[in-house]
Fold this sequence. Notes:
Blueprint: H1 5-11, E1 23-28, E2 32-38, H2 58-76, E3 85-95, E4 104-115, E5 118-127, E6 130-141
Antiparallel strand pairs: 1-2, 2-4, 3-6, 4-5, 5-6
Amino acid sequence: MVYDIQKILSVLPHRYPLLLVDRVLEISPGDKLVAMKNVSVNEPFFQGHFPGRPIMPGVLLIEGMVQAGALLLYETMPDVRPEQVCFAGIDGARFRQPVRPGEQLIYEVEIIKQRSGVIKMAGAAFVENQRVAEAKLMAVIGDRQ
């Protein structure tokens, strides 16, 4: 099962310039999702981060993991609408290597604990099989009405 950009847009509320997942490569509902983001020099954040030395902001690497996690939750809990899922926490964020224009990010998110509306996931971002960032993420499922 692969998501193209049209399917991603039908699930996530994010739009340009904050949509940070271009394609889903692999999904195992209830377990793991692998997604991709092509990092272009045309990304608006590169104008100020940093002029002459463009580096993707770490907070956007985390946001990409969160969006991939939301797609995993969509497949894991089909009765939950995307607007019910709220990002609630982050632990252990590490940025190991800068991400530059022209690189392709691979996000991997995995559910590590799920209990009464609280889901904990492990997220990581890779460029050419090198881990560039990682974090533990927490999401909360809101009102189901």
